[in-house]
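Hi all, a correction to my earlier message: I attached the wrong file for Cytochrome P450. Here's the right sequence:
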Amino acid sequence: MEINSRPNVSDMFPLLARFDLQGILKEATAVAQRLDWVFSSVIERRLGEGEKRLKDMLQILLEIREDSENAGSSSLASMTHLKAILQDIATGGTENISNVIEWALSELLMNDRVMKNVKRELDEIVGLDSLVEDHHLKNLNYLEAVVKETCRLHLNLFPRLSTAPSTLGGYAIPKGSMVIINAWAIHRDPQFWDEPSEFRPERFLNKDDDKRPFDLMGNNSNFQFIPFGSGQRICAGANLAGKLLRYVLASLLHSFDWKQPDGAEKIEFSDYYKIFIKKKKPLMAVPTLRLSSQDLFA
Ligand code: HEM
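and the right structure:
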């Protein structure tokens, strides 16, 4: 089940939209219906479980919905709202996380110096007799810089539709225009970044320890680093995504040493845009245990 993010003629010539010349609307509607069916089935099954229900994210959302309904509030009033939240979590929190992890591992496998620095930090903060845990993350500053540097080089923003006429940088933007902020180009602009195409996490480490430059929330005065957007319509899961990226990457690098399969070609960095920026050639890497004992996974 997948939608290709190919350009849609209907976006460029709205008068043609009702003909859906490329069948993109038809395809997207089928995917949406399929997802709706999946979420409806999961919800129905859960509602039928009676007292044995798990206290997980779905259960919490169902309870909030029930409370909203009882209080006559509109915050999570309908099953459609609930399914929309489940869809955001399922689509936002899966492929784009694994995609960034794939880029980060590719960069690290090509960059011995950075890989060594990451491992040194993990050894100091976590130690080879432990798995990475949530409380370690706040001290993994170098790893955090690796995540940011990966986001700088390999993320872009999505197109947005303007809902009202406005002016930006002297340009008039009529209502209904498709607007694309080219974060990919901003993140590689030599006006803002030294040697922009180099993978150099140090650029995100501040010498002065109490002031870290550029968080993932687009909070920098000149919008130089905006991997998740900025302002009102920033990625709703940016905080969670930042934490997941650090946790998954730290766990993979702490638990295992990674190398390319014997005889593999040099890692290819060419990419293509398909909602996210994806690697043209998927990364192949082989793990070997790095921790002091495999019993730690038990
Ligand atoms: C590496 C992981 C992720 C990346 C790269 C990413 C990226 C983005 C980007 C670029 C946007 C659009 C921002 C804009 O137009 O200015 C966005 C929107 C959004 N993201 Fe994420 N995201 C990630 C993870 C997540 C997760 C984990 C969730 C939910 C649990 C999530 C939920 C959303 C939602 C709901 C929106 C729409 C926000 C709105 O329109 O108000 N994302 N994301």
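Sorry for the mix-up. The mean pLDDT is 89.
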